[in-house]
Specification:
By secondary structure, the protein is α/β, with parallel strands linked by helices. The protein has a single domain, classed as Rossmann fold (3-Layer(aba) Sandwich), CATH 3.40.50. 42% of the residues lie in helices and 16% in strands. It has helices at residues 20-25, 30-51, 67-75, 88-97, 132-142, 154-164, 175-184; strands at 57-61, 80-85, 101-104, 117-123, 143-150. Strands 3-2-1-4-5 form a five-stranded parallel sheet. Helix 5 (132-142) links the parallel strand 4 and strand 5 (143-150).
């Protein structure tokens, strides 16, 4: 995956509140830009593989500011994408760039019917949760075909944080991510 990397035009983020996530996606640092574009290219390739099974409804669980939701909607115009996030601040930003539905909710108590989506994506979300296993069960409950879940690769994640000067006092990792990485996956 990620062989042909298309550099994404992030001008759709111009004029928005500069959250940490938006700063990451709009970084001028060539190493950060390269890593972000590799991530997005791989993400889009996974969506393309799933779409061969005729996707219609997609849930972006943990949509944040709606960045990946927007990019996915631009490339796959036929998809009906619903963004879900717990943060009203994030949802207020997402409403400015996302064409589909945006709802407030959390992954512990998804306010959605069983088997209501062809695909559920949850990108860079689980590492922020205290009980990711509950979120994964709920994601499984609402999808009828596929789920794509992504958590940062610890060495790459830390390097990215170092390049951005983030969490240096924490050895470039987030505490919630450390608990997830150390406890849930090992």
């Amino acid at each position: 995956m990620g062989k042909n990397i298309d550099f994404i035009d992030f001008s759709f983020l111009d004029g928005l509140n500069r959250t940490d996530n938006i700063r990451k996606y709009t970084s001028k640092n060539p190493l950060v830009r390269g890593a972000v574009n590799i991530f997005i290219s791989s993400f889009l390739e996974m969506i393309e593989l799933c779409d061969r099974q005729k996707l219609n409804k997609v849930l972006d669980a943990g949509t944040g500011e709606g960045i990946l939701n927007h990019i996915m909607g631009e490339k796959f115009e036929h998809l009906e994408i619903t963004g879900l996030d717990i943060s009203m601040d994030n949802l207020n930003i997402a409403e400015q760039i996302v064409d589909g539905d945006i709802i407030r909710g959390d992954l512990y108590n998804l306010p959605l019917k069983d088997n209501s989506f062809d695909l559920v994506i949850s990108m860079e979300v689980l590492e922020h949760l205290e009980k990711p296993e509950i979120a994964i069960k709920n994601i499984k409950r609402v999808t009828r075909k596929f789920a794509i879940l992504s958590v940062p690769n610890d060495p790459v994640f830390r390097l990215g944080n170092i390049l951005r000067g983030k969490n240096l006092s924490e050895l470039a990792t987030d505490r919630a991510y450390s608990a997830l990485y150390g406890g849930f996956f090992h």
